[in-house]
Amino acid sequence: MKVLGIESSCDETGVALYDTERGLLGHRVHSQIDLHAAYGGVVPELASRDHIRRLPLLVRETLADAGCALGELDALAYTAGPGLAGALLVGAGMAEALAMALGVPALPVHHLEGHLLSPLLAADPPAFPFVALLVSGGHTQLMRVSGVGEYELLGESLDDAAGEAFDKTAKLLGLGYPGGPQLARLAEQGTTGRFRLPRPMLNSGDLDFSFSGLKTAVLNVVSAPGWHAVDAVDLAADFQQAVVEVLVRKALAALRRTGLRHLVVAGGVGANRQLRAQLDEAARRRGWRVYYPEPELCTDNGAMIAFAGALRLAAGERVAGDGEIRIRPRWPLTELVKPV
Ligand code: ATP
Ligand code: MG
Ligand code: FE
């Protein structure tokens, strides 16, 4: 079964072709970073317009890369939420229109389910059940994943998401937008231990997180008299270490609590090298194992949407097939159910 996936929930336009027999046959992502950089954040109206501009070409290119004709598609899958309503409508409209023209089903997919299942696209995927640490720009969650659509929330951030904390702190350090990856690069050149930053909720006894206080602590450092911009590398290193330490500690606690031995990390912050190194080391010592998506599939992409859609369709999920454009800008992951 060949499924074309379309992602347009925020500021990346992603298209991918996934074949249930042959795997990922092609994927393309267009990032709108340059478009929004001048505003320091995503401008929803501009995002929607750019998705409209890019999608038709990306669909054509993805199919050409894979040597697949439009008529060979068995289904479409699109991100229906959560995300920006106007941006979601573009991908949903495109997918539903194509599906109707081709006479094939179009499946609305949950963006976070896409992130969550993306490590299963790797060469050596984990088997269910596992614990998932979802660390993206909008979410920080620990889930127990027993199967497709079987997600139990174990804990989550009470305020900022981990990626959001990286981005906001990067802004405080005068880095460009979006600053998360730049902050991580800066941190790699720095030395930890110079700045005493908090480890929010490290010993809270639950699996929840809080990152907004960390950003405030950084603000206090950079606004104190005697702050020198040359120290930003070391402050970046200490900030990154504080986030990583909390994420590692809570992920390990989630494994202990559930009795599971496999951890899956998904979402943009999953690309962070320190997070990966420290999770791998901690898990190795306990005989546990950590799985990651391919680095390019950590941030938003169409491949994870095509894949999640294909898994659901293969499991027998039915599709309304009425051409209705289904988007759900606010959509808790825990409302998902097993494919039926
Ligand atoms: P959501 O999926 O919750 O709706 P999103 O789609 O915006 O949010 P992703 O695309 O998964 O999130 O990830 C983007 C986030 O990942 C940004 O906040 C970015 O700063 C962060 N990020 C990307 N690479 C790194 C890195 N190497 N280290 C730390 N953070 C990173
Ligand atoms: Mg993005
Ligand atoms: Fe995302």
UniProtKB/TrEMBL annotation:
Residue ranges of every copy of the Gcp-like domain listed in the record: 24-307
Chief localisation class: cytoplasm
Chain residues that bind Fe cation: 111, 115, 300
Keywords recorded for this protein, A-Z: Acyltransferase, Cytoplasm, Iron, Metal-binding, Transferase, tRNA processing
Top-level lineage group: Bacteria
Catalytic activity line of the entry: L-threonylcarbamoyladenylate + adenosine(37) in tRNA = N(6)-L-threonylcarbamoyladenosine(37) in tRNA + AMP + H(+)
Residues involved in substrate binding: 134-138, 167, 180, 272
GO CC terms: cytoplasm
Required cofactor(s): Fe(2+)
A GO molecular-function annotation: iron ion binding
Family: Belongs to the KAE1 / TsaD family.
Name listed for the protein in its UniProt record: tRNA N6-adenosine threonylcarbamoyltransferase
Source taxonomy: Bacteria, Pseudomonadati, Pseudomonadota, Betaproteobacteria, Rhodocyclales
Gene behind the chain: tsaD
